[in-house]
Specification:
Low-confidence stretches of chain A: none
Number of helices of chain A: 0
Largest sheet of chain B: 7 strands, mixed
Largest sheet of chain A: 6 strands, mixed
Structural class of chain A: mainly beta
Radius of gyration of chain A: 13 Å
Strand content of chain A: over 45%
Order of helices and strands of chain A: EEEEEEEEEEE
Shape of chain A: globular
Mean pLDDT of chain B: 93
Distance between the termini of chain A: 41 Å
Largest interface: A-B, 22 and 25 residues
Shape of chain B: globular
Oligomer: heterodimer
Radius of gyration of chain B: 13 Å
Number of strands of chain B: 11
Mean pLDDT of chain A: 92
Chain lengths: 110, 112
């Protein structure tokens, strides 16, 4: 059974700092997603990672995938307050179900 | 620019009522999903469908059923609503190549 674990679950950081959110998953998969959710809103797709070694960047966010280690990272560079949100990773299992992590609530202090 | 819509943003129902949540996507996607989101539990998959009239149980299908009569529409049905089904319900769709997945705006259901 595929399990997806994110850490940390909660992160409070200062503006301007760098940090990384980790997403580990328990069984083989070659498709991983990162989403952002603002309070009271739905999920917004950030990145789709489809192969080992994939790296994608959008503004201050960069996501990478290591399928051998079953690990994805979401790196935040020089954080700004607007990036405060909850971030989810999700992984596709062999039955094509998409399994989500519990989310990382990111709070960036001005 | 509408992609995935849900019939209601907020819904209040009474225990025992039958509840229909509708989801429509305009991207000709084969795969559609229903999740519920609860604090501390993240998103949990209720049902998904990979084609018209096809459905698969997710992790928490008990108390729910679904209907996919047309490709663009995926309905979630609570046959007899209970208070523990109070939650945020999110619909999503994705194409057969499993690239970007789009979510609807969500329906916040309260069962009294």
């Amino acid at each position: 059974e595929l399990k997806v674990e994110q850490n940390p679950l909660f992160l409070s950081m200062q503006e301007g700092k760098n940090y990384t959110i980790y997403c580990n998953y328990s069984t083989t998969s070659d498709r991983l997603y990162w989403y952002r959710q603002d309070p009271g809103k739905s999920l917004e797709s950030l990145f789709v990672l489809l192969s080992n070694g994939a790296v994608k960047q959008e503004g201050r966010l960069m996501a990478s995938l290591d399928t051998k280690a079953r690990l994805s990272t979401l790196h935040i560079t020089a954080a700004v307050h607007d990036l405060s949100a909850t971030y989810f990773c999700a992984v596709v299992n062999r039955d094509d179900k998409i399994i989500f992590g519990k989310g990382t609530r990111l709070h960036i202090l001005p | 620019d509408v992609k995935v819509t849900q019939s209601s943003r907020y819904l209040v129902k009474r225990t025992g009522e039958k509840v229909f949540l509708e989801c429509v996507q305009d991207m000709d996607h084969e795969n559609m999903f229903w999740y519920r989101q609860d604090p501390g539990l993240g998103l949990r998959l209720i049902y998904f469908s990979y084609d018209v009239k096809m459905k698969e149980k997710g992790d928490i299908p008990e108390g729910y059923s679904v209907s996919r009569e047309k490709k663009e529409r995926f309905s979630l049905i609570l046959e007899s609503a209970s208070t523990n089904q109070t939650s945020m319900y999110l619909c999503a769709s994705i194409g057969s190549r499993y690239n970007e997945q789009f979510f609807g705006p969500g329906t916040r259901l309260t069962v009294l």
